[in-house]
């Protein structure tokens, strides 16, 4: 039985988020009846039964008319995760209808319908093909550049969009090939879309032809990556509102937006993250490491001390930084096992690191 873990308590809804979520429909009373105390496959199966019952299958053309409801920014423009920059200024925006694709020759020309889980993986079959939870509006040109490559962390980018989304070689341990990386602010959104798809279509999953999936679940590399993305990018007001609006149209919900704890109840917790008690503080990759080690800290402003220690206790690296993303060169270290320590106001954390070339 998978142990419950209260780390989700680390993210809290702001006052604005609560107010925004009150403007749309809430979770229907009793919608998740029967889920209490469940975990693992049993919980996944129960959620599948709930979100698969009495659903409304939309037409593909009907998605165009759905987007002004499900994906409208506060300024009335379309919310495109391939061009938007939360907390910053988007390089361009789209107007519903007016900027609908059509043809395109570059970014900002028009928006179309992006299958977050590429339709070719499930042979364009219904009802996946028009499921609003994963068919999101995006820049048509960026959608085309993404093609049907898996989502992943990019090691070396061959192309970068105007908002920082990347196409390039995989940095994800366990997967070799080309991947598409959304910006950090939307990685959790896509992770929770994939957890929804793996639950809603668990019976169809074995026929899907793509490496992120294996049998009736995820490949191990994809599962771990999506668990990390979910932890580092908590549920936003945008996701909550979209979940409610899609429910109004499709008559089902993404349970992992309503209750992110269920992700860990079903799939466990990611490896390669510094953990102390109930707190995740950083994502550490790649594991094993070769010439470089990257540390993504969850707290973006906190002063943090880092050390790498040999098994005999000798300190071979030490620094203090306010940066949220730290890259450590390991060229001077021999193959072997080391301890990485991370210390800041959240506590003291120690993680084993293997260098293997």
Tell me what the structure shows:
The protein is α+β, with helices and mostly antiparallel strands and 357 residues long. The chain folds into 2 domains: 8-267, no CATH class; 273-355, Immunoglobulin-like (Sandwich). 25% of the residues lie in helices and 24% in strands. The protein has helices at 15-21, 40-52, 62-70, 140-146, 184-200, 220-232, 237-250, 255-258, 261-267; strands at 111-115, 135-139, 154-160, 166-170, 178-181, 213-214, 217-218, 273-276, 279-285, 292-297, 304-310, 315-321, 325-329, 336-344, 347-355. A 4-stranded antiparallel β-sheet has the order 8-9-10-13, with helices on one face. It is globular, with a radius of gyration of 21 Å. Residues 1-24 have low confidence and may be disordered.
């Amino acid at each position: 039985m998978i142990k419950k873990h209260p780390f989700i308590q680390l993210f809290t809804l702001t006052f604005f988020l609560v107010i925004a979520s009150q403007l749309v429909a809430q979770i229907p009373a009793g919608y998740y009846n029967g889920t209490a105390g469940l975990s693992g496959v049993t919980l996944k199966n129960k959620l599948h039964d709930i979100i698969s019952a009495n659903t409304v299958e939309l037409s593909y053309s009907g998605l165009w008319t759905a987007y002004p409801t499900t994906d409208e920014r506060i300024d009335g423009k379309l919310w495109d995760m391939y061009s938007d920059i939360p907390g910053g200024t988007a390089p361009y925006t789209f107007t519903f209808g007016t900027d609908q694709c059509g043809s395109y020759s570059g970014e900002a020309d028009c928006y179309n319908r992006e299958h977050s889980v590429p339709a070719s993986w499930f042979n364009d079959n219904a009802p996946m093909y028009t499921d609003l939870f994963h068919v999101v509006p995006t820049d048509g040109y960026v959608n085309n550049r993404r093609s049907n490559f898996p989502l992943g962390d990019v090691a070396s980018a061959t192309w970068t969009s105007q908002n920082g989304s990347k196409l390039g070689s995989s940095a994800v341990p366990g997967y070799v090939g080309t991947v598409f990386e959304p910006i950090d602010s939307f990685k959790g959104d896509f992770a929770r879309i994939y957890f929804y798809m793996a639950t809603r279509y668990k019976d169809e999953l074995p026929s899907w032809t793509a490496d992120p999936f294996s049998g009736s679940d995820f490949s191990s590399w994809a599962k771990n990556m999506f668990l990390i993305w979910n932890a580092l990018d908590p549920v936003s007001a945008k996701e909550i509102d979209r979940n409610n609006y899609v429910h109004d149209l499709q008559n089902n919900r993404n349970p992992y937006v309503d209750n992110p704890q269920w992700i860990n109840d079903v799939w466990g917790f990611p490896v390669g993250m510094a953990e102390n008690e109930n707190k995740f503080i950083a994502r550490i990759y790649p594991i094993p490491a070769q010439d470089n080690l990257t540390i993504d800290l969850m707290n973006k402003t906190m002063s943090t001390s880092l050390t790498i220690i040999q098994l005999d206790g000798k300190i071979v690296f030490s620094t203090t930084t306010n940066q949220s993303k730290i890259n450590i060169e390991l060229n001077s270290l021999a193959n072997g096992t080391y301890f990485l320590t991370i210390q800041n106001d959240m506590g003291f954390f120690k993680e084993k690191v293997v260098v293997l070339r």
